[in-house]
Amino acid sequence: MNWDDLRYFLAVAGEGSLSGAARALRVNPATVSRHVDALEERFAVRLFDRRQDGYGLTPAGEKLLARARGIESEMFALGRSFDAEDRGLAGTVTVTATESLTVPFLIRNLPLLEERHPGIRLHLVNEYRMLNLSRREADVAIRLARPDQGDLSIRKIGEMGFGLYASPAYIEAYGAPQTAADLRNHRVIDWLDGFPENATVLWLRRQIGDTTPIFSTNPASARLAAARVGVGIALVPCMVAEGVTGIVRLLPDEVIPGVDLWLLVHRDLARLAKVRAVLDFIYDRAQAEADRIAGRCG
């Protein structure tokens, strides 16, 4: 049996569609379909009901799913056991983080990482989707919520602070809010509904109440760009707004809930020298830049 066929089957079962599985695996839907067809031919059963709203498992598919998950766990455990053989401070480490952290924190510190560990190369995956560390979708993750996923080593590294921003042109046209409650009378830029809710998102939505946001998008840089051209008021991490011209911070004394940052790694890889070096580096830089990350630098 081809392990790849099982891997594609699991992706379709998890995502509920060929297109979703293709996005998760970074291939085209035709490739996913080919592997699923091969597996169905191999067992001479139909594994999925092809419906208009997606792919649903048949009884045979449910039976295979239970076995395939066990095989998948064993395959990834085997891979981690080989990966965890210490080869020194050299090689590639894959880090996943949200867009809010990639440029203003991780990329900002790349020169220092290279100086300290010239043999290590980072692969940086910028995604809001919770990549699975147990399945080696990434080696290290920085997340905005403490997860309950697999056998992970988890460490809090700080808190990301947020501020409200608008352009001078917006303030001239609509005025500036004097209190957070005034936001319900302004043009506010929000996250999309699919974005994970956290204390910061909930705080903004409580302030605007039933007011319909003027614009919604998830990337912080896009929300800030919209504010910069006068679309409305955006709530973004202070790090993202740092040094950006054409915007003004509003209500700087307002207490806005921040988001805890969590550094994660699978325990099997935590002792690998190159991974340990990256973990320690990220933690050390987060402590050195704690005030900046929390938005306490003005």
TrEMBL record:
Assigned protein family: Belongs to the LysR transcriptional regulatory family.
InterPro entries: LysR-type_TF_proteobact-type, LysR_HTH_N, LysR_subst-bd, WH-like_DNA-bd_sf, WH_DNA-bd_sf
A GO biological-process term: DNA-templated transcription
Protein name: LysR family transcriptional regulator
Stored PANTHER family: HTH-TYPE TRANSCRIPTIONAL REGULATOR, TRANSCRIPTIONAL REGULATORY PROTEIN
Domain named HTH lysR-type: residues: 1-58
Alphabetized GO MF terms: DNA-binding transcription factor activity; sequence-specific DNA binding
Transmembrane segments: none
Keywords annotated in UniProt: DNA-binding, Transcription, Transcription regulation
Keyword Magnesium attributed: no
